[in-house]
Write a structure and sequence with these properties.
By secondary structure, this protein is α+β, with helices and mostly antiparallel strands. Helices cover 16% and strands 43% of the residues. It contains four helices and ten strands; from the N terminus they run αβββββαβββββαα. The strands form two sheets. Strands 8-1-2-10-9 form a five-stranded mixed sheet.
Length: 174
């Protein structure tokens, strides 16, 4: 009998598993990213373009003495650019790639909240009728009040960023 109670409690714990997401607006959509990858949120800064950089790299900004590449997340996701208003921010992300941590910045039209989202609140991405659509960079959908939050997989989007966005070859920025 006791063993059944323990198994039942473990099942409840699994159901209650949650993650923390930073939610922000981009191109009229609300997106969510796992806060484990968020290093900091900064005011919009002047972006210095880099010649011959990959098309998604808008340039670099100085963040506490480090040059951080700013990537056009909207282009990566196929989201139309949003309006730049006073609420716009840059979100600096940090990933472990190989033997070091790499920072990448993205732009947000507006940063909303930091939300706990239980695994049970994440809906799968509807794929019916979209056989050729690569939704591998999406984790799922979550609802907050009347908003639908698209949870994105930063590792899926930037997992190979160590190679693709390595701007050190001859540039001397990192």
């Amino acid at each position: 009998m006791f063993e059944d109670e323990v198994l039942s409690e473990e099942a409840d714990v699994e159901e209650d598993e949650s993650s923390t997401y930073l939610t922000f607006d981009l191109g009229g959509q609300t997106l969510g990213v796992d806060v484990r990858f968020v290093r900091e949120i900064i005011d919009v800064k002047k972006i210095t373009p880099l010649p011959n950089a990959p098309s998604e790299v808008l340039g670099v900004v100085d963040v506490r003495g480090q040059s951080v590449p700013i990537v056009d997340l909207g282009r990566r996701l196929g989201v139309a650019p949003g309006d730049w208003a006073e609420e716009a921010r840059m979100v600096v992300l940090e990933f472990a790639t190989g033997y070091r941590n790499r920072q990448i910045g993205i732009q947000a039209d507006r940063v909303r909240n930091v939300d706990q989202i239980a695994q049970s609140e994440i809906e799968p991405i509807p794929r019916d009728g979209f056989a050729l659509w690569d939704a591998g960079v999406l984790l799922g959908l979550s609802r907050r009040n009347e908003d639908l939050i698209v949870l994105i997989d930063l590792q899926g989007i930037f997992g190979d960023a160590g190679d693709e966005l390595d701007l050190t070859a001859g540039a001397g920025f990192f």
